[in-house]
Amino acid sequence: MEALLGVEVPPEAILPMFSIGVSGRRRMALARLNLDQSGQVPRGPFEGLKLAPDHRIGELSVAKLLGVYEHELRAVVSATDHWERVVNIGSAEGYYAVGFARRVPGRAVTAYDIDANAQTATTRTATLNGVEDRVTVLGECLPEALLAHADAGALFWIDIEGAEEALLLAAPPDRLARSDLLVETHFPSGAFTGVAVARHFEDTHDITVIRQSEIQPEEVPEFRSLAPLDRHLIMLEHTTAAPWLWMCGRDTRT
Fold first, then answer.
1. Which of 2, 7, 80, 169 is 20 to 30 Å from 161 by CA-CA measure?
2. Alpha carbon of residue 191 to chain centroid
């Protein structure tokens, strides 16, 4: 680093300088990408979903606008159209909550998020897509609320940044045997949440581990003119490669 810059760089300054360089290259790659600014998802299981203008910022929104956000889960989304009730815990701006509501006419979605801004954003996204009458937006999902949904049977879509373990381990597995759960795992404080959750449900659910994978250029026409490094920087979504758990309740097939 010092030789490259021609100056002596303190060790503590190297990482911030590297980060600035990466951020700059990412901004240039985004400019070349020339994203459609309409806010409408162009492809994927939620094709046609409209995102409000203030949602089109940040690295995650780029993937959503390209229709390839968490592309590893496309088959799961498509395989769950039989569920009339969806519970999205950790709704953020409503990408999944509203996307699921749009996919199946008459489907009821309950969206939980502890962040008041996220609740407002989910409501706004639901209204923009004309499904506000079928998307109920609430705050924190407590264990008793989880079980109330589970008793009726539902598809649970859960991403709560490491808190999924505490929520799910408080629920008796047999109470969720009539439900399917997609759980994004995390590494809070260095501990992997997936192992404990999988063990908790191994007797009542069939569990598949879904790992992250690279987007292929042929899947996204907008990527064809970009170098591999630029594609990677644009799609950089997670600081760790934690997988998802797709857990299908065995009582859902009886």
1. 80
2. 20
Domain of residue 224: give its range.
Answer: 69-253
Sort strands 205-210 and 244-249 into parallel, antiparallel or unpaired: antiparallel
- Count of structural domains within the chain: 2
Position 152, amino acid: A
At 63, is the secondary structure helix, strand, or coil? Answer: helix
Residue 229 is which amino acid? L
Residue 44 within any structural domain of the chain: no
* Structure letter (DSSP) for residue 182: E
Query: Cα-flanking dihedrals φ and ψ of residue 63, to 5°?
Result: -60, -40
Per 3-state DSSP, the chain is made up of helix, strand and coil in percentages (nearest 5) of: 45, 15, 40
Query: Quick one: 7 and 124 in the same domain?
Result: no
- 191 with 247, same domain: the answer is yes
The domain spanning residue 248 has which CATH number? 3.40.50.150
Q: What is the pLDDT of residues 76-105, one digit of tens each?
A: 999 999 999 999 999 998 999 999 999 999
61: confidence class by pLDDT, cuts 50, 70, 90: confident
